[in-house]
């Protein structure tokens, strides 16, 4: 392109932004004008913004098309790489050019850094292998963004064409729940489920907050899963502003909607290329690998950086939430009166509480999906955990008598002692079983499975919800020393016993391991 052609191109670009130069418009007015200009000239809003930014930074010279820095140099793609690129595009027409380049670079070390996207796109156009030529492309939606991380998260549910098999071989459709940071475009957490109930949203938000702290605001869809009372109250408890999208306003959730489209175009086709139907665990393993190793590593066209670099370069402090507070935020609460036999009723079941609470009013906090135990609170103070009351098989049956004088002689049996003996026997069997599996060496980092074994060794068998809490603690720490963890757990048990809520033991382990905790933020 000669100088005359460059000047003509710059004049054409200036004509596109003339109505925006030197004009102070409200955000809504400017957005409307940008959309109008983009439609009139047949280009994207981001292109109009880019031309305006060039003019504001460098004047008219900023609108001149840049000359190629590699003019005169060979820009050829190795024939073998080009042939493989054509095969990859024909094999999966929805496969994007950046994905194909990354696949080629993974295949051959000598191809890394030598394949330009623009050059490969030129070859695709000449060969008639553009995605537009092979299939129709959906319209892209864009929206403004926040200036700092964790000011706003967008969350939504997507139902892609992904299927998984269960242990019985039955086929289930997977759904994806994801939350994206508005400023950096980082996926704070995303996960595949086979349910659309409220708990999948809760799980996603809890894991996101555990890893990246609490956001200032959460912008969510109007689906029943997101606007449930449990989610609203959890946000209020954690100091998160709860924002709901307008009905039928998909563009309002532009960033998460655009990310779902990226997922549909890049990740979903790769899953379809697999020869076997995955389990849910396998699907999530591939999914998280794609998010961390592909999406977070690719330069985003709107922020001109990778989501991971953008997040890490932002020095805004993260508002971390301790596991006890986070778990408590998602618990439901009801009040109950303790009977004279120290029992309360919930879910149609009886739970045994401390004898000292008999006849008093207590607050019961519970998770709707974990009915193995509930928390007992009184006047804002945590009292303890209550488990379902079950009569042992060797307990004497109660016989209704009309005459109080026919009371039998005392048996000398004590129910709490029986329960304690049964619990100790189970614990001894558990410790014996674990000892056969081998133990960790002191002062070595261990996995989340190691943490579960340590807790069950010194406390009790963990429920599914308790395993989730333990995993969150291990994830937050980034590394736990076995010797330190075992030592502090023994001391904590000696001082406070084994009957406190699991979160207290996890907090003690986390604090003791603080020097080992990975920063990861």
TrEMBL record:
Domain Integrase catalytic span(s) in chain numbering: 142-315
Coiled-coil regions listed: none
Entry-linked Gene3D superfamilies: Ribonuclease H-like superfamily/Ribonuclease H
Signal sequence, start to end: none
Family matches, as SUPFAM superfamilies: Homeodomain-like, Ribonuclease H-like
Listed PROSITE patterns: INTEGRASE
UniProt-recorded name of the protein: Integrase catalytic domain-containing protein
InterPro entries: Homeodomain-like_sf, Integrase_cat-core, RNaseH-like_sf, RNaseH_sf, Transposase-like_Mu_C
Organism: Pelotomaculum propionicicum
GO molecular function: nucleic acid binding
GO terms for biological process, alphabetical: DNA integration
